[in-house]
């Protein structure tokens, strides 16, 4: 998911998306641990998207606090 797509989301939707991405990362890590993951690059991609979403969420919360 691109940053533009994440920035277009409302705050509540963005928080829900972060939670969903955290669950997705957990599932990918679990698949890797149980040797069910064929493409290990999915771990890095999931981490990157989650970090991007968390960064945008932090920016929004900081802007709202100012």
- Radius of gyration (Å): 14 Å
N- to C-terminal separation? Answer: 28 Å
Our count of helices gives 3
Element-level helix/strand string: HHH
Number of strands: 0
What is the level-2 CATH architecture name?
Orthogonal Bundle
CATH T-level topology: Helix Hairpins
Main sheet specs: none
CATH secondary-structure class: Mainly Alpha
Strand content: under 5%
Q: Low-confidence parts lasting 5 or more residues at pLDDT below 50?
A: none
Mean pLDDT: 96
Give the overall silhouette: elongated
Structural class by secondary-structure content = mainly alpha
Helix content: over 70%
Number of domains: 1
Q: Secondary structure elements and their pairing?
A:
Layout: H1 3-7, H2 11-33, H3 41-65
Helix pairs in contact: 2-3
Task: Outline the structure in words.
Helix content is 80%, strand content 0%. It has helices spanning 3-7, 11-33, 41-65. The chain has a single domain, classed as Orthogonal Bundle (Helix Hairpins), CATH 1.10.287. The protein is built from three helices and no strands. The protein has 66 residues and is an all-alpha fold.
Keywords:
Helix Hairpins; 66 residues; mainly alpha; elongated
Could you write a compact summary of the structure shown?
The protein is mainly alpha-helical and 66 residues long. The chain has helices spanning 3-7, 11-33, 41-65.
């Amino acid at each position: 998911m691109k940053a533009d797509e994440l920035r277009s989301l409302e705050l509540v939707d963005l928080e829900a998306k972060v939670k969903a991405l955290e669950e997705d990362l957990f599932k990918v890590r679990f698949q890797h641990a149980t040797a069910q993951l064929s493409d290990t690059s999915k771990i890095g991609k999931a981490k990157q998207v989650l970090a991007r979403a968390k960064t945008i969420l932090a920016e929004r919360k900081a802007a709202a606090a100012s």
